[in-house]
Amino acid sequence: MPGRNLPTVCKILLALSVLLLGAGPALAYAGPGVDVSLIGYAMTLLAWVVAAFSAVLLWPVYALLRKLRGRKDEPTTTPATGAEPEEARAVSHTDA
Fold first, then answer.
1. Residue (of 83, 62, 84) closest to 73 by Cα position
2. Residue 23, pLDDT above cutoff 70
3. How confident is the model at residue 37 (pLDDT cuts 50, 70, 90)?
C-alpha cells in the first residue's frame, strides 16, 4: 500500500483480527423442520442427477438398439411440402 508505513498496516490487521476472533457464537436454532425439508431437497437433487447421468450413459445403448432393429425415426410431415400423411389427413379432416 503506497503512502502507508508497515507499522500502521500491522496495527490495522491486528485490530481486525482481534475483532473477528473475539466474536461470540451465533445462537440461531432453526428447528427440526429445516432438516426435514433439506432431506427432501437432497433426494430430489439426487434423483435429477441420477436421471441426467442415466440418460447420457444409456444414449449409446438406445442408438445401438435402434440401429440393430433397422428402424428409423419417421417424421410426421413430409419435408418437401410440409403436408400431413394420408392417414393423419383422413382423421383430422372429416366432413360433417
1. 62
2. yes
3. confident
- What string of DSSP letters covers 22-72? TPPP------HHHHHHHHHHHHHHHHHHHHHHHHHHHHHHHHHHHHHHT--
In this predicted structure, the answer to whether residue 30 has a pLDDT above a threshold of 70 is yes
Map grid coordinates 449409446 to a residue.
60
* Alpha-carbon distance values, 65 to 2, 32, 38 (Å): 69, 49, 40
CA distance 33 to 86: 59
Cα→Cα distances 63→52, 67, 73, Å: 17, 6, 11
d(CA 22, CA 15): 11
CA dist 12 and 24 (Å) reads 21
Q: How confident is the model at residue 87 (pLDDT cuts 50, 70, 90)?
A: low
Nearest alpha-carbon partner for 87 in 73, 76, 74: 76
